[in-house]
Write a structure and sequence with these properties.
InterPro entries: Glyas_Bleomycin-R_OHBP_Dase, Glyoxy/Ble-like_N, VOC_core
Structural class: alpha+beta
CATH topology of the largest domain: 2,3-Dihydroxybiphenyl 1,2-Dioxygenase, domain 1
Pfam families: Ble-like_N
Shape: globular
Protein name: Glyoxalase family protein
Organism: Pelagerythrobacter marensis
Number of domains: 2
CATH class of the largest domain: Alpha Beta
Helix content: 10-25%
Radius of gyration: 17 Å
Number of helices: 4
Number of strands: 9
CATH architecture of the largest domain: Roll
Amino acid sequence: MSRMIFVNLPVADLDRSKAFYEAVGFTNNPQFSDENAACMVWSDAIYAMLLKHDFWKTFTSKTIPDAKTTAQVLLALTQDSAAEVDAIVERAAKAGGSTDPTPKQDFDFMYGRSFEDPDGHIWENTFMDMAAVPGCEAPADQPGHLASQQA
């Protein structure tokens, strides 16, 4: 079995959160979704499990922090271009999220922006041109390499 990550997020309104994540590009896996949780798929290896607060509390006795005022993690996704970074942030804004809760990054080799979901969870989005990273040679067919985008 390949290695995967399931990011579990407490959400106040499951339907609203599911619609938000679908709007930014995740797809719902109904096989692992029900009235308490939604399995939102980003890739073959990355899943966000959206859990209603009462269901979340069955996994831990720790208090659910208010993600709009506190942060425990900054989640990060890579994108294949700077334009894709901008596009996902704009989709998040149109779907009810907020844009750029963390500083924008615009360096010679890296471009990044972030969005916040309706519950306050922050998702950073980054494009890195590996061929432009000092001391790093990326294969031409690697996503992020400029030659792969010109094909």
